[in-house]
Design brief:
With about 375 residues, the chain is of the alpha/beta class. The protein has helices at about 10-25, 50-55, 70-90, 100-110, 130-140, 150-160, 175-185, 190-195, 210, 215-230, 240-250, 265-275, 285-290, 305-310, 325-330, 340-345, 350-360; strands at about 5-10, 30-35, 60, 90-95, 115-120, 145-150, 165-170, 200-205, 235, 255-260, 275-280, 295-300, 315. The chain has 17 helices and 13 strands. Strand 5, helix 5 and strand 6 (about 145-150) form a beta-alpha-beta unit.
Length: about 375
């Protein structure tokens, strides 16, 4: 008789993280997976395309939560997730990362007395003004099984007093996904469609509240990209949050800047691999730049992925009046970091390690 695992996802990064885990779970003779999509990301470019490209099974439940303030969104998810969990009665609930979907899933699960599993446990920026930091700390301390993507993440958990028996350093499921889909991503024709040359453009993604909700930060970024663009075209993949913020603040992206909707996983990886420089505030894109060995500027004062900084592939910059000059220096003379990825992120073995441990846990071993 199989036991049920309920997986909760809701955002673009979570679809990427669950892709291979869900595939392997569904091959297990001991486990039946129930997939729940909260609907936190609902735009086709942020949701449906990932299910198509990564061959994810259709969700058993789509809660269609939509957008809203942190409290409003998390509360709506919590109410609906509680009903689903009570109906399905899973042996375990699996959550990923650090979003409002993660937090709502964690709270609904533990209040019903069901063991919680957190994939990507332990990363810390040590900035509690970030909603993501609060989400991951809370989820970690509620979880029965914690799968840490890096050794530093596991160390953070030990330092916070989480029992070592609950923590497993598995490696990063995003690195597994990167390795698995790289051959397919190479077939993307996104460069031809955009008419751009390899290593002759800058790729930009901005979405975090500290940049989009701060008028001055957003203006510094827009001005810096304009200053950068005459020599190297800027490809800006605009998140809906960023598009709305630009419109509300009446900020124009001027210069040789090409705005595109957020690409699917395969197109995005092709763009990342062939960029001369990546500018982002995304932890996921920061890691993917590291996997591709492409220099990356992360527009934040801190990062939960210090491995990428230590190896020289990521530089942290806070938006300010001198941002343009700093970026011009980087694009003309991009620093090349240490050629490592697997040793920090698990050598592409995270997914089988996670599923093996879930099998053992469910079997009572």
């Amino acid at each position: 008789m199989t036991k049920k695992i309920l997986t909760i996802v809701g955002t673009r990064p979570q679809f990427i993280k669950t892709a291979l885990v869900s595939k392997l779970l569904r091959k297990s003779t001991k486990i039946t997976e129930v997939l729940v999509h909260t609907g936190q990301h609902y735009d086709d470019n942020l949701s449906k395309i990932f299910f198509r490209e990564m061959e994810l099974p259709e969700p058993d439940y789509n809660l269609n939560t939509g957008s809203g303030s942190h409290g409003e969104q998390t509360g709506a998810m919590l109410i609906m997730l509680e009903k689903v969990i009570m109906k399905e009665k899973p042996a375990l609930v699996l959550v990923y990362g650090d979003t409002n979907s993660t937090l709502a899933g964690a709270l609904a699960t533990v209040k019903l007395g069901i063991p919680l599993v957190h994939v990507e446990a332990g990363p810390r920026s040590f900035n509690r003004l970030m909603p993501e930091e609060i989400n991951r700390i809370t989820t970690d301390h509620l979880s029965s099984l914690l799968f840490a993507p890096t050794a530093q993440s596991a160390l953070n958990l030990y330092r916070e007093g989480i029992p070592a028996a609950r923590v497993f350093y598995t490696g990063d499921v995003m690195y597994d996904t990167f390795l698995h889909y790289s051959p397919r991503a190479e077939q993307s024709n996104i460069l031809e469609r955009l008419g751009i040359k390899k290593k002759h453009y800058v790729l930009v993604t901005i979405h975090r509240a500290e940049n989009t909700d701060n008028n001055m930060c957003l203006r510094y970024i827009a001005d810096a990209l304009k200053e950068l663009s005459p020599k190297f075209p800027v490809i800006a993949a605009l998140h809906p949050r960023t598009q709305a913020a630009l419109a509300i603040n009446e900020i124009q992206l001027e210069g040789n800047i090409w705005t595109i909707s957020p690409p699917g996983y395969l197109d995005m990886n092709k763009l990342e691999k062939n960029a001369r420089l990546i500018i982002t505030d995304s932890g996921g894109v920061q890691r993917e730049a590291f996997f591709h060995r492409v220099p990356c500027i992360t527009l934040r004062a801190e990062t939960e992925w210090p491995e990428t900084v230590k190896c020289g592939w990521t530089r942290l910059l806070s938006p300010g009046p001198d941002l343009g000059a700093l970026l011009k220096k980087e694009v003309y003379c991009p620093e090349q970091g240490s050629p490592v990825s697997g040793m920090f992120f698990g050598y592409g073995k995270a997914v089988p390690r996670i599923v093996k441990r879930l099998d053992e846990y469910i079997s009572g071993k």
